[in-house]
Design goal:
8 strands; alpha/beta; 8-stranded mixed beta sheet
Length: 217
């Protein structure tokens, strides 16, 4: 498949961009968000997008307004949500970018994007969450756990699949598993820290393939 179609989209938080991959006869939508760093091409984001398209999902990689504006630092969580939620909700409206695509919606993201996905999954009617490098707590502060964000979709019966670096200072796989404490959480531990290395790409691909297959792929 050729490169993505790129569409500017106005949001309440400013202009965003959607990078869209749409395979023939797509049977579901994966909305994918980036992290707080200025990159759309991290190992885990690229691997997730590639596997999703291979499995027949339409992928919408959302470039948040702060990144479109050229800023180096991400905006606050409420502002991230304010851009993401209406944009993703509008993808499959009659005049939306994916208006004819049916099947499940899975919300996904890396790091800060994983938090956004968890916070908004229920409101968006998502079938599941795929969280990449979920930042459970700040490095060195295991007492400041973001358990409430991870719990939001779980409390509504929405399954959460987490791909986490084995040595992630923002929360190891064991820490995430303990914080979630739910049978609706599936954990995939891969080599690396918060930044997943290229050497772990195949492990990430396998984890994403399993997660999306279970979620309707």
């Amino acid at each position: 498949m050729s490169g993505p179609q790129v569409h500017p989209v106005d949001t309440p938080a400013g202009p965003a961009r959607v990078h869209l991959w749409r395979p023939p006869r797509a049977h579901g939508v994966l909305a994918l968000g980036h992290g707080a760093g200025p990159s759309l091409t991290t190992v885990d984001l690229v691997a997730t997008r590639e596997v999703a398209v291979e499995l027949g999902w339409a992928v919408a990689l959302v470039e948040q307004p702060w990144l479109v504006a050229g800023r180096k630092v991400a905006t606050r969580p409420p502002v991230l949500d304010a851009a993401w939620q209406p944009l993703v909700a509008g993808l499959r409206e009659p005049r939306g970018l994916l208006g004819r695509v049916r099947g499940p919606l899975v919300v996904s993201g890396r790091s800060a994007g994983a938090r956004v996905a968890c916070r908004t999954a229920v409101a968006l009617g998502a079938f599941g969450v795929l969280a990449l490098s979920f930042p459970l707590h700040p490095p060195g502060k295991p007492g400041s756990v973001r358990r409430d964000e991870l719990a939001r979709p779980l409390a509504a019966g929405v399954p959460v699949h987490v791909v986490q670096g084995e040595r992630d200072p923002f929360g190891t796989p064991d820490e995430v598993r303990a914080a979630a404490a739910s049978p609706l959480v599936s954990l995939y531990a891969v080599a690396g820290t918060h930044a997943i290395p290229a050497s772990a790409v195949e492990a990430v691909r396998q984890a994403v393939r399993r997660a999306l297959t279970e979620l309707g792929g």
